[in-house]
Amino acid sequence: MSNHRISPRQARYAVVLFGPEGQGSFNESGLLGARRAQAAGHLVDVHWVAAQAAPDRADEMLPLCTGAYDLVVAHGGQGDGPVDILAARHPQQAFAITQGSLVAANVARYEVLQEQSAFLAGVLAASVSRSGVAGHFSGEKVPPGLRGRAAFAHGLSAAGFGGDFVTQFCGHQHRPQWARACVEDMARQTGVDVLFAMIDGGRPGVTEACRRHGVAQIGNVLPWGQRDPGVFIASAICDSGEAVLRAIGDHARGNLPLGGYRSFGLEEPSLVRLDLGPRIDAQARVAVDEWAQRLLRGEVDIRSVYTGPEFPLPAGEAALAA
């Protein structure tokens, strides 16, 4: 009788990033999470999905659902739509979504709480605005972006901001020139002097417009103040790539919460914090820290819905957002 033992097959993982390959800070974070999983010894393939509409994204992801992968990880709220389609058609395929909202029996949700650092960005904006106009700008109206906007507006209000709030979703995460045109239009018409921008591949256009019009920018996901301190006064850190790593690690250990949810926030400052630049004065730093402590103590229930008006897209240009 043979004593030969067949080793179990090592699990394989697909990480899906939405947008043009190599573009965007959110995708950069997700890619780093995938690379960290590879460095930990997991078999991880990265797939870029360029389509914009959910059915088209699902079509591009369909080959990943044929049994080759033990887990498909969709990075970002952009994954809600296509995974909703695919999870229903392929109930035996396990999925994980980072920063998304989809609930399904074969889908695990992982979220790094951007809304906590977005709330603190609102507290900071209330302290530094001199024109009395603070703004928010983003691309697609996916749930994480909507929650981030609501949290930023809540932070402004909580800090006693008495000025005007302007907000706009331009419709696309990865078009720098379109983003530049939208932010320049906002700056000319409103006098906004501090802008919280939750944008991915379109970030260079936003930064160009902010530099041209003297608008202080608060970034998100990555420490933008270290990359361009001339424009960025702070960044609402959200290491969303860690959610990719943890989903893969949980699956490998047999702990993937299918049908469930895991979240990570300010209690892990390496993942979530407001990273302040050198231009921020002591008074603003104290205000941000005090509100961060209130969040950690559970004294603030961050609003998830914003009900005010939106700044319109530039006249005659709205079709570019599609």
Question: Describe it for me?
Answer:
The chain has 322 residues and is an alpha/beta fold. The protein is built from 10 helices and 12 strands. The chain has helices at 25-39, 54-61, 80-89, 114-128, 143-158, 176-190, 203-213, 224-227, 241-252, 282-296; strands at 12-18, 43-49, 71-75, 95-98, 107-112, 133-138, 164-169, 194-198, 216-221, 232-238, 261-264, 272-276. The protein has a 6-stranded parallel β-sheet, with helices on both faces. It is globular. The N and C termini lie far apart (66 Å).
Helix percent band: 25-40%
- Per DSSP, the total helix count is 10
Give the termini distance in whole angstroms.
66 Å
Radius of gyration: 20 Å
Strand order of the largest sheet: 2-1-3-4-5-11
Overall residue-averaged pLDDT value: 93
Shape: globular
Order of helices and strands: EHEHEHEEHEHEHEHEHEHEEH
Number of strands: 12
Share of β-strand residues: 15-25%
Q: Which structural class is indicated by helix and strand composition?
A: alpha/beta
Low-confidence stretches: 1-7
For the largest beta-sheet, the strand count, sense and barrel status come to: 6 strands, parallel
